[in-house]
Specification:
alpha+beta; 10 helices
């Protein structure tokens, strides 16, 4: 897998008497040793070392008190101007049309950098990407949200943004080339179709899913092989690819995709999950982690403050499908068998070299569907949106909004306020909202 073992210096606090945890309720910043690359030895090592120095310097700058702290009100919360300065939002609603020409997609994004009182200069570790005419296919689109985690999670969210869509586009193109050759093999010489990407066949959703699987796994492996500080940092990913009239949802981690479906009889828009959080709350994921040599415990259990339940006594909660919200903030986590690391609250991700060794891998789960007249809204969002808000509430907010800009702004505002109801901090919060317009609807 291209893994490099961590040195004692890099993990001098990773014995059984110390602990670090990643995701949802991160409690410790940790530094790691980078992977090495043999290719282009001189320039590659210099580039890797420079990046390593930059990332480590950013950690030191956050910790040494040299940066100016943000302005707070009398309650210790960010001032409105500071909150606004930490937000990136679409200036206006954007539009694209699906390949059949019958369905328009209106979309917008909003990303709010969080605030951690014990780490006030922590950057926004969420990222996102939007691509139209994806893989050079007219009418195809790709939307992705990437939630970084760990000491330099922002770097890995950006790495995923820069590499995952490119890899997927490459593999989609390769599959269409294969389909073109198969089709031409059955045609006579006079009827063969020229080698022109515009004429290549569309591919089935299962083939698109295979391309997505390869893209995620290659992105993950390249991340582990080439990026410094990958031992305890990484990113989750939730995406929607639109191809051949279908939406293909790919999920790695605990970000989420939900559909707003308009019931024909009542015109009520109901929330339908298109992804399922990959966390140790799920029995199937816990068992997979155990088979890979990991263990699952909450932090309180690890510290002896609560009884160490067997894995199967955490119940089987499918976050994203049920209404469960973890208000206590101490979810079951993934640990090595003999060390108190990595402590991830998710069971799949890109990067996270140490967690990868005990089954936290980058293989996506998929959900594919044909877009129909009843499909009204699609939301892709990081877990900061769903920590304290249920799926239906998110869809209700969007359904009341006049356009996607208003919708995603309202979703982020609601999530931000909910965080402050429960905690003295806020996670990074990112949402992409799509409205499907059918026929002349919305024109």
């Amino acid at each position: 897998m291209g893994c490099v073992q961590s040195s004692e210096e890099d993990h001098k606090s990773t014995n059984m008497g110390s602990m670090t945890a990643i995701g949802r309720t991160e409690r410790m910043i940790h530094r790691q040793k980078p992977s090495a690359s043999k290719q282009q030895i001189s320039s590659s090592k210099e580039s890797s070392n420079d990046l390593k120095k930059q990332l480590k310097q950013s950690i030191r700058d956050r910790a040494d008190g040299s940066l100016k702290d943000p302005d707070l009100d009398v309650t210790g919360r960010l001032m409105p101007d500071e909150i606004a300065s930490r937000r990136e939002t679409s200036a206006k609603t954007q539009h694209t049309t699906m390949s059949d020409g019958k369905i328009r997609i209106e979309y917008a994004f909003c990303s709010q950098r969080g605030y951690y009182p014990d780490d006030p200069h922590k950057p926004n570790q969420d990222s996102f990407s939007i691509s139209n005419n994806f893989s050079s296919i007219s009418g195809d689109s790709f939307f992705g949200v990437y939630d970084g985690h760990g000491p330099v999670g922002e770097h890995f969210a950006q790495y995923t943004k820069q590499n995952l869509p490119t890899l997927l586009a490459k593999y989609v193109h390769q599959e269409r080339v294969k389909a073109h050759r198969v089709r031409n093999a059955s045609l006579s010489k006079d009827n063969k179709i020229p080698f022109n990407p515009k004429l290549f066949p569309k591919i089935e959703s299962k083939v698109y899913e295979l391309a997505s699987k390869r893209a995620h796994e290659e992105c993950n492996q390249k991340m582990i092989d080439t990026q410094p500080l990958v031992n305890l940092s990484g990113s989750t990913a939730i995406s929607a690819g639109f191809h051949n009239g279908q939406a293909i949802i790919s999920c790695v981690g605990d970000s989420r995709a939900i559909l707003g479906y308009r019931e024909e009889d009542t015109q009520t828009i109901i929330a339908i999950p298109l992804s399922q959080d990959q966390t140790p709350w799920r029995k199937d994921e816990r068992e997979r982690i155990k088979r890979a040599g990991g263990r699952v415990m909450t932090i309180d259990q690890l510290e002896g403050k609560a009884s160490a339940k067997e894995m199967n006594e955490f119940e089987d909660r499918k976050l994203g499908e049920d209404d469960f919200i973890d208000e206590e903030g101490d979810p079951p986590r993934v640990w090595l068998a003999d060390k108190r690391i990595p402590g991830t609250s998710f069971t799949r991700s890109l990067g996270d070299q140490i967690a990868n060794a005990v089954g936290v891998f980058a293989e996506p789960e998929f959900f594919s569907k044909t877009i129909t007249d009843e499909d009204a809204i699609l939301v892709l969002a990081s877990d900061g949106v769903f920590e304290f808000i249920q799926n239906q509430n998110i869809i209700d907010i969007c359904a009341k909004s006049a356009n996607p800009v208003e919708a995603c702004t309202a979703v982020v505002d609601a999530a931000y306020d909910k965080w402050l109801e429960y905690e003295n901090r806020t996670d990074d919060i990112t949402a992409i909202v799509l409205f499907f317009r059918h026929g002349d609807e919305g024109r």
